[in-house]
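Minutes, project check-in
Item: structure for the 294-residue chain
Input as provided by the requester:
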Amino acid sequence: MNNLITQFLYYIEHERHFSERTASAYRHDLNKFAGFLESTGRVDVVAITKADIRNFLSLCSKTCGAYAYARKLSSIKSFFKYLGREEIVEKNPTIYIEAPKLPEKEPSYLTESEYQNLIDAVKIKATPYYLSRDLAIVILLLGTGIRLSELVGLTLDRVNLENADRNIKVRGKGNKERSVPLTNEVVSTLKQYLKHRPDVESNHLFISRLGGELHSRSVYGLVKKYLKAANINKKVAVHSLRHTFGASMLRSGANLVVIQELLGHKKLETTRRYLHINNIDLRNAVDGLILNKK
């Protein structure tokens, strides 16, 4: 079982190009599942039944919330789909196990004043060595809405800052490539960073102090640090900068299909979540309207 999990993880990381964070979540869930099966004496993956999976999920439901429960089921489903594709199992025991319906999460995002405070925090708190890099990371996330995995995966040959069609080419979910246009501010910030970027062998756009590629957990940590320095105490993190871009685009008048393309959403329904954000902003604007000042 453990060898099959290792093979599956290699597949999603190197062939499907899943993010480091997603692969880590799959690893955690499947190792828990494998441990449960061993404790019940079910070590042959071919012999695993729907009842075995339900028993594991029932146990999980006592200690984890709805989202963690759904993620564990998703991990197991993906694992058995892979085993079927590789002809390791003939029947998929997860096929008739339905995922629970989860309440839709409202995207967390920064207001205009909050993201300006975030940018100021980077300028004030970053050490001289990291200033141009960290500022470029935050500006790029806010100015393009790309995912964390897409940012750390960016290579120099996929960054075009010179001609009229200034853009970056990123690989999103499912290894799909899309082109994201860059504003003057993003281009200027990236050019400033590239002037200070050490000449190293790594082709990655953003690199660590040791000259290797910058990992997702490092970017997650540095953004969290600057959010704290900006005194932004609500529940936001790296992905909130992506939501901030989506909400800003909607506010500026971009239609949902354009935003969907920019963010690389597979379904338009995912992009529609920003409509709720916009409705909140509209309500706040109307509530602040005073017609008769006395």
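Outcome recorded: The mean pLDDT is 86.
No further action items on this chain.
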